[in-house]
């Protein structure tokens, strides 16, 4: 009884965080969705994260920068954080370049700014701008891939599996992998993404009875 109670407690805590902790025996028809690590049947699009040690609903990927998985419950917040980072970073770079290299557009000033090293303060600021520009370019690429994946209703995990199993189509020069399984058109796909986490949790048969 003690083991059963502990398992039930973990299940409740897992669902509160958006993780799939449904207990179920392994029938023959659900071997594909059976997680041998968590000993449960995963819902559609859920995946097991070996770093977190649990199954996550609609798993996209594990982000080392936030030390957490990006899934159904926090994917919207992840996109919002990336967007705010891009806006503030571009604003900071533009403001600094306008201060150091007056009369030049930010893009031109980034590559040609004769007075950037005239004094220590300007040199340090210009160097920091270049570091910020490199990081911003990388984050911009990540945000672009995320937005394309949302438009095609595919997760990073599903894209990797499709490439491994050779079941997906490379589109837009390979930037996105369309599995075709959940793609319902751009508008419907974005509507689905914006409604993530808003649906009430499904009740088990025991709760209904």
UniProtKB/TrEMBL annotation:
Palmitoyltransferase DHHC domain location: 31-159
The biological process GO terms on file are: protein targeting to membrane
Look up and give the membrane topology term.
Answer: Multi-pass membrane protein
For this protein, the record's InterPro entries field holds:
Palmitoyltrfase_DHHC, PFA4/ZDH16/20/ERF2-like
Q: Which residues cross the membrane?
A: 77-100, 120-144
Q: Which UniProt keywords apply?
A: Acyltransferase, Golgi apparatus, Lipoprotein, Membrane, Palmitate, Transferase, Transmembrane, Transmembrane helix
Please indicate which superkingdom the organism of origin belongs to: Eukaryota
Which Pfam families does the UniProt record give?
DHHC
Q: State the top-level EC class.
A: transferase
- Catalytic reactions on record: L-cysteinyl-[protein] + hexadecanoyl-CoA = S-hexadecanoyl-L-cysteinyl-[protein] + CoA
Q: Which GO terms describe its molecular function?
A: protein-cysteine S-palmitoyltransferase activity
Instruction: State where the protein is found.
Output: Golgi apparatus, trans-Golgi network membrane
Enzyme Commission numbers on file = 2.3.1.225
Q: Which GO terms describe its cellular component?
A: endoplasmic reticulum; Golgi apparatus
Membership in a protein family:
Belongs to the DHHC palmitoyltransferase family.
- Notes on the domains: The DHHC domain is required for palmitoyltransferase activity.
Q: Give the PANTHER family listed for this entry.
A: PALMITOYLTRANSFERASE ZDHHC23 (PTHR22883:SF475), ZINC FINGER DHHC DOMAIN CONTAINING PROTEIN (PTHR22883)
Q: What is this protein called?
A: Palmitoyltransferase
User: Source species, please?
Assistant: Certhia familiaris (Eurasian treecreeper)
From which lineage does this chain's organism come? Eukaryota, Metazoa, Chordata, Craniata, Vertebrata
């Amino acid at each position: 009884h003690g083991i059963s109670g502990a398992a039930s407690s973990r299940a409740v805590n897992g669902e509160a965080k958006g993780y799939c902790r449904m207990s179920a025996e392994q029938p023959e028809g659900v071997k594909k969705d059976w997680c041998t690590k968590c000993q449960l049947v995963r819902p559609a699009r859920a995946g097991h994260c070996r770093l977190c040690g649990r199954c996550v609903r609609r798993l996209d990927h594990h982000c080392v920068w936030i030390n957490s998985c990006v899934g159904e419950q926090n994917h919207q917040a992840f996109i919002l954080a990336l967007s705010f980072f891009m806006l503030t970073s571009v604003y900071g770079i533009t403001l600094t370049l306008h201060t150091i290299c007056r009369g030049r557009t930010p893009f031109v000033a980034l590559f040609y700014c004769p007075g950037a090293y005239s004094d220590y303060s300007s040199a340090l600021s210009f160097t920091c701008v270049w570091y910020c520009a490199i990081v911003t370019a990388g984050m911009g690429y990540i945000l672009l891939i995320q937005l394309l994946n949302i438009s095609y209703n595919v997760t990073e995990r599903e894209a990797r599996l499709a490439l491994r199993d050779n079941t997906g189509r490379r589109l837009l020069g390979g930037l996105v992998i369309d599995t075709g399984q959940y793609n319902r058109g751009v508008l419907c796909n974005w509507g689905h993404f914006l409604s993530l986490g808003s649906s009430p949790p499904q009740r088990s048969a025991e709760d209904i009875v």
